[in-house]
Amino acid sequence: MIIVMSDSHGNRKVVEDIKEKYLGKVDGIFHCGDSEQQLMDETWDRMSMVVKGNCDYDSFPTISEMLIGNDHVFTTHGHLHGVAWGLERLVADAKKYDCNIALFGHLHRPIATVEDGVLCLNPGSVSQPRGKHNIKMYAKIEPTTDSYKISYMDLNHQEIPELQFNLPRK
Fold first, then answer.
1. Which of 19, 65, 164, 168 could connect to 97 by a Cys-Cys bridge, CB 3.0–4.6 Å?
2. What protein family is recorded (predicted)?
3. Which stretch of DSSP H or E encloses residue 21?
4. pLDDT (tens digit, 9 = 90+) per residue, 75-95?
5. What's the CATH number where 127 sits?
């Protein structure tokens, strides 16, 4: 299982709460940027990956790729991939690194879709949600051999009923 959050915009407590809920119980915990925290902040201890967003000024990496179980995960904030105008560049870069999952933030709204064999997931925002689902949220990914179970969670760690998906691997 993979936990994904993004766009905390200085809300250190929410990042810590989510991390503490899942630490040692999941395969990876990712933050897709715009934390507005320092790279050396102890919040990031034992997290799988944190990337730099357009509101971050410390030396976080802008992209990352890593193997989590049988999945190769590409992580970025998304602003440098033009995610506001489509997912083509995100998918192309994920495929360049042979990744089958692409995690991104920036838009502050949930997106879960499989594009050209790559799961593209935006976890929404844990601090400043936008769009139709005005709920502070993060996402869980439970990969299986033939699908991805996606659960968007509120900050009370409860599933958001209308944001539960089972997407086939393509």
1. 65
2. Belongs to the metallophosphoesterase superfamily. YfcE family.
3. helix 12-22
4. 999 999 999 999 999 999 999
5. 3.60.21.10
Q: Transcribe 114-157 into DSSP letters.
A: EETTEEEEEE--SSS--SS--S-EEEEEEE-SSEEEEEEEETTS
Q: How many angstroms separate the CA atoms of 5 and 14, rounded?
A: 10
**Token pair listed for 19:** 């991390």
The whole-model pTM stands at: 0.96
Using the Cα atoms of residue 23, residue 28, residue 31 and residue 37 in order, give the sign of their dihedral: positive
- 164, 76, 166, 158: which is closest to 122 by C-alpha? 76
Residues (pLDDT < 70) of the chain are none
